[in-house]
Fold this sequence. Notes:
The chain is 26% helix and 22% strand. By secondary structure, the chain is an alpha+beta fold. The chain has a domain at 24-74. The protein has a 3-stranded antiparallel β-sheet with strand order 2-1-3, with helices on one face. The longest helix is centred in the N-terminal third of the chain and has 16 residues, at 4-19. Mean pLDDT is 76; it is low at 17-23.
Amino acid sequence: MRxxxxxxxxxxxxxxxxxxxxxxxxxxxxxxxxxxxxxxxxGEDTDCGYTSLAQCQASASGLxxxxxxxxxxxxxxxxxxxxxxxxxxxxxx
Length: 93
C-alpha cells in the first residue's frame, strides 16, 4: 500500500492541473449588436464587431457564414448625460 501512494502521486497531480485549467472565453462580445459566425472545416469562428445586420451580411457575402443579433449585447453605454449637450430637460409636462 505504501508503494502505491508514491506511484499515484504524479497522476493525481496531473488531474489537479487539468481540473484547474481556466474556462474558455465567452463566445459573444457584449459591445456590438450583431455577430457573424464563420463555418469552416474544423470548427467555427464568431466575430461580433458589427453595428448592423446589413454591414455583417455584406462581410459574410460569398462565405459559409451567418449573421445574428447578439444575444449578449449590453446596449449603448450610458453616461448619465442628456441627449444633446447644452440643452436642459424640461420638467412639469
